[in-house]
Structures are given as C-alpha cells and as structure tokens.
Design goal:
With about 55 residues, the protein is an all-alpha fold. It has one domain.
Amino acid sequence: MATKIIAGLIGVALLVAYVVPVVWRLQEVSLWCVVLLGVGMMLVDLWQSLKSRGD
C-alpha cells in the first residue's frame, strides 16, 4: 500500500512539474482548464486505485 502511495505521489509531482512551466509561460485560460482537468482526473484515478483491494 505504501508503494502505491509513493508511486502515485511521484507521478503527480512529475506531471505537475512537467506542465506548470508551459502553462505559466503561455498564460492561456483554456490551457489552464485542460491541465487542471487532467490533474484532477489523475488524482481521482489515484484515489480509486488506493481504495481498491487489487494488491
């Protein structure tokens, strides 16, 4: 379980670190919406995988 949490947090951190500089530089509202939606979907998927008893 701890491995899933650590891997999920590393994945979230890497995604955010990858897209934030691009979004910050371009300053487009539509791009912000797409990135926030993508990060939100990633967090929901992480939450659902942590709640499942697959491992």
